[in-house]
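#struct-help
A.M.: can someone run this one for me? Single chain, 71 residues.
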Amino acid sequence: MLQINPKKFKHIQNKSIPSPLRPKFRNKAETNIYFLSKRKVRGEKKDTLIKNIKFFSFIIFIVVGGYILSN
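D.P.: on it. Structure tokens below:
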């Protein structure tokens, strides 16, 4: 069977909790490209959604206006 040799254990001298590392503050130009591209994709989706809403509302307006004028 496997037995543990107590002589191989090292004594821990500093038992205090280590302080967390200070976060890195970067310039705006050095930010992570992942978040920048994610923001760009969200902006593009928003623009295409607004464009589609305008297009379909214009088509509906023309159809309703043509129906009203034909009666």
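A.M.: thanks! The chain has a mean pLDDT of 76.
D.P.: also worth noting: The helical segments are 33-70.
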